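COMPLEX REQUEST
Ligand: magnesium ion
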Amino acid sequence: MPVVPPEKLVKLQQQGEGIRNICILAHVDHGKTSLTDALIATNGIISPKLAGKIRYLDSRPDEQLRGITMESSAISLYFSLLRRNAPEAEPERKEYLINLIDSPGHIDFSSEVSTASRLCDGAVVLVDAVEGVCSQTVTVLRQTWLEKLRPLLVINKMDRLITELKLSPSEAYTHLSKLLEQVNAVVGSFALGERMEDDLRWRERIDEKVTAAVAAKGQHAGDGTNGVSKGRKASLAEDDEGLVTSSTPAEYEEKEDEDIYFEPERNNVIFSSAIDGWAFTPRQFAGLYEKKLGIKRHVLEKVLWGDFYLDPKTKRILGPKHLKGRHLKPMFVQLVLEQVWAVYEATLGGPNKKGDPVLLEKITKGLNLSLPAHVMRSKDPKALLSAVFSAWLPLSTALLVSVVEQLPNPPTAQQARLPALLAASPGAEHIDAGVRDAMTHFKPGKGQPVVAYVSKMVSVPESELPVNKRRGGMLSADEARELGRKKRAEIEKAQAQANGNADVASVSDAFSSAAIGDADEITGAPEPEPEPNEDPEHLIGFARLFSGTLTVGDEVYVLPPKYTPARPHAHPQPRKVKITALYLLMGRSLESLDSVPAGNLVGIAGLEGAILKSGTICSQLEGAPNLSSTNAISKNAPIVRVALEPAFPGDLDKMIRGLRLLEQADPAVLYEQLESGEHVICTAGELHLERCLKDLRERFAKCDIQAGEAIVPYRESIVRAEEMNAPRDPALGRGRVEGVTTSKQVTIKLRVRPLPVPVTEFLVKHTGAVKRLYSERKAQDQERASPLGGDGTTGDALEDTGEQDIDAEDTTAEGGHDLSLAEFKQRLADAFAEEKTDKDVWKDVVDKIAAFGPRRVGPNVLIDLTEDNLCEKFLREEHEAPADNPNHANKHTSTFADKVAYAFQLATHQGPLCSEPLQGIAVFLESLTIHSSPEESAQNIGRLTGETIRTTRDAIRSGFLDWSPRLLLALYSCEIQASAEVLGRVYGVISRRGGRIVSESLPEPSTNFTILALLPVAESFGFSDEIRQRTSGFAAPQLVFEGFEMLDEDPFWVPTTEEELEDLGEKADRENVAKRYVDKVRARKGLVLDRKVVESAEKQKTLKR
Ligand SMILES: Nc1nc2c(ncn2[C@@H]2O[C@H](COP(=O)(O)OP(=O)(O)OP(=O)(O)O)[C@@H](O)[C@H]2O)c(=O)[nH]1
Ligand SMILES: [Mg+2]
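STATUS: Structure written out below.
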C-alpha cells in the first residue's frame, strides 16, 4: 500500500467537515496501541501483515520492551469512503482526515489521558472482552463524560473468548450482553449523578421562589390585621404546593438519556480482535444478509442484536414472545458469532489444530472471498486466519467507518461542547463575544481570533525536526531497509541492556518494514562521552486549534493556567510569543506546516519557556478564554519522591537543566530543590519514575544520574493513650507549655491537643476549600492594604516564601473547592460537635481559628484564646474585616502574634519525631505578654522576632511530646485483577509487605478476581514487579495514593513495668515498627539518632576471636 503523502493530509486540514479528532482510551493492556496499528496500516505506514503486532505508536524502546504505552502520541491518517447520497445515486468519494491520539492505560500515566481528551471531539473506548470493565475503564468513561466527548465502544480481544475461554457462540453472546450491561451501568451512574444534581438545583430554585413569594406576600399582609395575614399565609401554603406541582412539567425537563448508552443496534459498539485484525458492527452484517434474507438493511440493523430470532421456515423475524417454546438461537448468535467462530474452526481448529481445509473452502466460497494461492497453501494457520479476516472483516474498515459516521466533526462538536466548557472556564462572563462566537460556531477563517489549547509540551531531539530531515514522506526501499537495520540493532542493544527476555525479534523485524520511521532518537546505550549539545531537545506544544488560522510568524499571547479574562493584565502578565514553526504530528515524526486552520491538532514551536506544561494561546489578550482543564481525572498526585544526584559531581548543571526540561515535557512530574540542597523529583509511580530517569539520562541531561532511595512521606500526630507518662508539669496540665524568650521580654502560654478525629478527617478532605479561602482572603487583604503597610520584618519575608509554596502546588487533586465560606464553617462546626468528650474545649472554636498549617492549608489549627483576640480571625466574612487602626498597644502585641502564627506554620511543617508534617493538632494560644515598652521592642525588633518564633516553635514541640506521639503511614490503595490460580500468591505478597485486603470480588462476566488492598507506600517499592513475577505476569496491580493512616504504636514506648519487662526482655525484642520508620527517616535526613552503635561490645569481641 503506498504511503499517503503529507500534502494530501494538509489539504484535508482545510475542510472542517471531513476532520475527526479522536482519542483511544482504555484500561492498561486492553489493546489500544495494537488497534491503532490496523489504522496506521491503511495509510501504508506499516505493512498490514504486521498490524496488531508491531505497536507502531509505542515508539520508545522501553515502551516496546515492557509492552506498555508511556506517552500519548498523535498521528494523522487519511481515509476515503465511497458514499451514495441517495439509494440510487452514483457513489461519491468522500475524503476524511482522522487525527488520532493513542493514550496510555497505566495509572501512572493517567494525566496523559486528561491532556489528550481535551483536544479531541470523540473517544474510542476499548474493553477487553474477557477482563470486562476494569478500574481505568471507569476512569476513562468518566473522563469522556466530563469532557462531553462522544464515545464509541470497542469490545476488543474477542478472539480470547474463542481460543482461551473456549466459549460457544451462545455462551459468548450471554457473556457479551453482561459485559455491555456492565459498561452501561457505569455510564448510567454518571447520568444519574448529574440528574440528581440537576434535580437538587431545580428544587433549590423552586424553594427560593416560594420563599420569595411568601416574603413578598407577607409584606403585603403586614398592612392588614393579624388575622388576615394568617389567612393569607395559610392560603399561600396551598398555593405553595400548587406552585410546585403545577410548574413541574414546565420547569423540570427530563433529560433524554437514550443516546448515552452503548447499544449495538445503534452502531456505537464494535466487536474486534486487534491481534487477528478483524472487527465488525451489526450494520456490516446487515449489509451482508440483506439480499440473502430479503430483509431491509435498516430493519436488520435493529434486530441483529437483542432478543430477536429468525424463523427458519418463514425467514421472518420473531420477538421473544413469538417463540412459542421453540429453542431458537438469537440472530446475533446464528448469523454473526457462529460465522466468526467458523473461521477460527476452519483455520485453527480441526482434528490436529491445523485447520479444516474443507470448511475453509466452504467459507471462502460462501463469502465470495478470493485469497491468493500462496496464502491458501500457507502452513501457518494464523496467517491463514488473518488473511481470511482481512479480506472479510478488516478492522480498519469497521473502525474508521464508525468513527466517520458516529463521531462528530469539529464544527458540530465545538458547537455542542464549547458553550459549557467556556461557561465553566474562569472569568467566563468576561470572554469576548467575538472570540466566543468564533469558537462555538467554528470560524477557521484567516482574520478570526485564534484560540488554541496546548495540552502538553513534547520534547523532540533537534535531529528529528523536519528541517534537519529529508523532506517527503516516502523512503526509498534502500533507505527503509537501512532504517530498519538501524532500529533493529538499537532495540536489540536496548534489550540486551535491560536484560529482559521479551520477544522483540518480531518487533525488530517489524521496524525493518516501517516506511515512515524516525531516525536517531532511539539511542540504546548512551555514548560513552556524549557532547552536551550534540542533539539538543526542543519543546513543542501539543495543541488543538479551536478558531482562526495559525500561521508561522504569527504573534500570539500565551495565557498561563491561572489567567482569567476578568483581570487580563494581572501578574504574571501573559507573554506574547512568535510562532516559529508548525508541525503535523505523525507519531514520532513531524512534517512542517506553514499554517493550520481551526479544528486540527498541531505541534507548535516557539512556546519553549512561555508554557510550563499546558496553557491557552490566543491572538488577543482582552477577553481571551482560559481553557485549562479543570476536569483532570488524575487523582494520582505525584507521590514517589526521589532525590537525584549526578554520578560525576561536575555534571550537576547538566542534571539541573535536564530536570527543568523534564518538568516541562511531562505533565505529571514535579521538580524541587530542598533546603538541604537535594534535587528531588516527584513522579506518579514507580514505572513513571523509571521512565523519567531514562529520559533524563539519555535525552534531557545526557549524563549518568543516580537515584537515591525513594523518599516516602509520613505525617506525625498525637493521641490520648492509656499508657502515657504523667504530664510533664502536672500543675499546668497535659500539653500546656509556658515559653519565655531568652531575653525574658516575651512570654507565650499555649496548649497543644489532638484535634478530634472527625475534624482532622474533614480538613484533610477539604484542603482545596481552605486553599481557596486563603487565597480569597489574601486578595481581600491586598486590596485593603495601604501601599505603606508592610513592616518589612524578617518574619514577613519568610512568610512570603510559604505562600509561594501554596501557589506552586497543583490543586486539582484536592476536594472541596466549591464549598462557600459559610458552608465550610458550618461543616467544620458540625465536625467539632461530633466530639463527645471535652465538649467545652471545642465549643465555639471555629470562630477563634487564627490559622491552618502547615503551609496555611494543612490539617492543624491555631486557635486564638487570648483576651484581646490578638491574631486575625481566619474564617471571617468580608464585612468582618478588622478595623484598620487598632489601638497602639494592641497593635504592638499583634505584631508578635503574627510571629506566633508563623512559628505555628514552622512547627507543623516539621514535627519533632522525624521532621515530617503534623496532622491533627490543635494549638491553643492562651496568652502573649510583652514585658517591654513598644519603643524598646521597636529597637530590638529583629532579635525579638527571632526569639519569639523560636520559643513558640519549641513550646509547640514540647506540648506535642507531652502526649503519646504517633506516626502516620502513607497508603496506596491497590487494585489487582488475578485469576483464581494465582490468588494465593498475590495474598502472600500483600501480607508480607504489611498490606491488608479490603475486598475481593468476582465481577461478572470477568473470570478474574478483583482484589482491593491497602499497602504502605514505604513497602511498595518493587511491589508491582514482585506480583508480576510471582504470578508469571498474570496479575498487574494499579496503585493509587489513598491517604495517611495512623500506625498505632508509640515510637518512644519502652517496656517499664515489671510485667512488660518480663514479656519482652530488656531490649524489647518485639520490634517497634514505628521507631524503625522514624529512625529510617531521621537517618535519611541526617538527624540525631538515639541508637547504640555498638551493642554488647563484649560479645562482639568474643565473636571476632
Ligand atoms: N488475544 C488478543 N491479544 C491482544 C489483542 N489486542 C492486543 N492484544 C495483546 O494485548 C497486549 C497489550 O496490547 P497493547 O496494544 O499494548 O495494549 P494497550 O492498551 O496499548 O496498553 P497500554 O498502552 O500499555 O495501556 C499485547 O500483548 C497485545 O498483543 C487482541 O485482540 N487479542
Ligand atoms: Mg498502548
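REMARKS: Residues 26, 28-34, 55, 67-69, 104-106, 156-157, 159-160, 273-275 surround guanosine-5'-triphosphate (ligand 1) (CB under 6 Å). DSSP finds 34 helices and 33 strands in the chain.
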